[in-house]
Design goal:
disordered N terminus; 44% strand; Quino_amine_DH_bsu; five-stranded antiparallel beta sheet
Length: 371
């Protein structure tokens, strides 16, 4: 059955459930224009209406999230606190919280591309588990995996790629068994998706980034690798998959690599303390928060050039780009406000005041996979 048809069925079912479960006085935050802001040591999530840049209400996650993710099709937020053996699902249409009990404390959450499943894991405990986000139930028992570093789903949500000290192990989710290894030998520290999901990028312990082919593709290079540099924490792709960005805090530089040839197209000046890369405004600009300054570094993707920085009043946290790519929201650490950046104009539009300092900002529907 086509994925678009399944998505329509899910949305209709959720809408009917919301009509029966939503009290007359309750707010519904299931639309794509809402922004969700978490706060340090607080279970309350501030909801921002991005059309008017105003606080629209709050949600209570039932725990203080150290990681918060969103599923637009399911109209849910997914939260863990890194301290308790559970994952919380917050329904955006009703505000109801469903707790899924685990037998270990999850430290990270990775969502499947369709946002219907979550893989939660703890590298410290060398364990991972799968959760069905629609029905809010575990998919089988938790599993041990020695020297577990990272996880990534295939594009169908049927195979899980597990990065460990020996490379990448494939795990069949339907059969519940390993399928063998792919990619480079030796320790793999991180796995990052491509836009098409026909290949993935693996960061190995020697500092190289490997392109690992999962399906034959005419729009990406075959298996290969390139040196990333000691200060590169991960590789980011823009929303259309035409460029890879490698922010290097140690070398204070930004490398832009072609996914088709794996050749470096440009090496541009950067700064120390670089954060995530956020592609915006039809993949014409990339924003990179830097603790140095602090500021947001601005890169013109079409010219492969660095533009004028956007000064900030404090270091930025995890931010997000609106689905239309027009705005970039960035939490300011230690200050009760959110930076609102005009992506087309490449400027700070304003600071949005909050009731408490923010930790992270996200939307259940996003512009791309870079953030």
């Amino acid at each position: 059955m086509p994925s678009a048809f399944l998505s329509l069925i899910r949305r209709c079912a959720l809408g009917l459930a919301a009509l029966t479960a939503l009290p007359a006085h309750a707010a519904s935050f299931g639309d794509a224009f809402y922004l969700f802001v978490s706060h340090p040591a607080s279970s309350l999530i501030t909801v921002i209406d991005t059309r008017e840049d105003r606080i629209a209400g709050t949600l209570d996650a039932g725990l203080a999230p150290v990681q918060l993710e969103g599923s637009g099709d399911l109209a849910k937020l997914i939260a863990i606190d890194g301290r308790t053996p559970r994952i919380h699902l917050v329904e955006l249409t009703t505000g109801r919280v469903v707790s899924v009990a685990l037998d270990f404390v999850p430290r990270r959450v990775v969502l499947s591309p369709d946002r219907l499943k979550a893989a939660v894991f703890s590298p410290e405990e060398e364990r991972f588990a799968l959760v069905d986000l629609l029905f809010a139930v575990p998919l089988g028992p938790a599993r041990r995996h020695p020297q577990l570093h990272d996880l990534l789903f295939d594009r169908w949500g049927r195979t899980l790629y597990v990065a460990d000290a020996g490379g990448i192990e494939r795990f069949d989710l339907d059969a519940g068994r390993p399928l063998g290894r792919i990619g480079p030998a030796g320790a793999v520290l991180g796995l990052y998706p491509s836009v098409s999901s026909r290949h993935l990028y693996a960061r190995s312990a020697d500092g190289a980034i490997h392109a690992v082919e999962l399906e034959a593709s005419a729009t990406a290079a075959g298996p290969g690798s390139f040196a990333a540099g000691e200060g590169v924490a991960r590789a980011y792709t823009n929303a259309t998959g035409t460029r890879l960005f490698l922010p290097d805090s140690a070398q204070r530089r930004m490398s832009i690599v072609s996914p088709l040839t794996l050749e470096t197209q440009a090496t541009l000046p950067a700064a120390a303390g670089l954060g995530h890369v956020y592609s915006a405004w039809f993949d014409t600009v990339a924003f990179v928060p830097s603790a140095e300054g602090p500021a947001v570094l601005v890169y013109d993707q079409e010219r492969a050039a660095r533009d004028a920085d956007i000064p900030l009043s404090g270091p930025g946290g995890r931010g997000t780009v609106t689905p239309d790519g027009r705005k970039f929201y960035l939490p300011i650490a230690g200050e009760p406000r959110l930076a609102v950046i005009d992506a087309e104009g490449r400027r700070l539009a304003k600071y949005l005041p909050l009731d408490a300092p923010p930790l992270a900002a996200l939307m259940a529907v996003t512009f791309g996979i870079c953030h």
